[in-house]
Amino acid sequence: MSFELFLTRHAIERARTRTIPADAIQAALTYGAVRPIRGAEVYTLGWREVRRHAKRGVDLSRWEGVEVVCGHDGRVITVYRNKNDRALRDRSRRACGE
Description:
Elements: H1 9-17, H2 22-31, E1 33-37, E2 40-44, H3 47-54, E3 66-70, E4 76-81, H4 91-95
């Protein structure tokens, strides 16, 4: 799992202050679920992804909750940890009560 990451200055600063290493970002981009939200692509290492890949011998448990937001150009915009799977649902769907 080795490829070059393209992070914005904002993403570099957020990863540093939130103690999210490059390995966690790479893991999210490689193994995470991806969904389009608010004009970006969000890669999430939720409990489902951790469990699915554990069955294949890949331990992602220490990165559970890491989310990586990428622009359409592939650059990482920001990174953070999120334990709430429902927090990033699309606002229009949230307003409809889904």
